[in-house]
Amino acid sequence: MFEGWENELKIRIKSLQVKNLMKNAKEGDSSAAKYIVEDKLEGTKRGRPSKAERAAFLKQQSQEESELGSIGQRVTSLLERKKG
Do residue 75 and residue 53 come from a single domain? Predict the structure, then answer.
C-alpha cells in the first residue's frame, strides 16, 4: 500500500538533491560539479551484513573447507597407493 508512496518520496528527495547540486555547480562549486559527474547520488557505503548473510558465508566457508579436506584425503590415498 505504501510502497508507491515511499518510491515517490525517494524520487522527490533525489530530484531536490540534484536540483541543489546543479544550482551549486552553476554558481561555481567545483565539488558539486564533480559529485554530479561521478554520479555519487546513490551512495557507495554498504552497511553491516545481516545475520542471514553471515550465516550463508560461514556455511559456504565450512563447505569449502570440508571439500578441500576431502580432496586432500583422496590425494594422500593416491600417493600411498603409488608408493606401495
Answer: yes
**Phi, psi angle pair for 47, to nearest 5°:** -80, -175
pTM of the model as a whole: 0.40
The residue type found at 75 is V
Packed helices 3-26 and 30-38: angle between N→C axes, nearest 10 degrees: 140
Domain tally, the chain: 2
Tens digit of each residue's pLDDT (9 = 90 or more) over 37-62 = 776 666 556 788 899 999 999 999 99
- Nearest CA-CA partner of 30 in 19, 39, 21: 21
Judgement on whether residues 54 and 38 belong to the same structural domain of the protein? no
- Asked if 74 contacts 47 with a C-beta cutoff of 8 angstroms, the reply is no
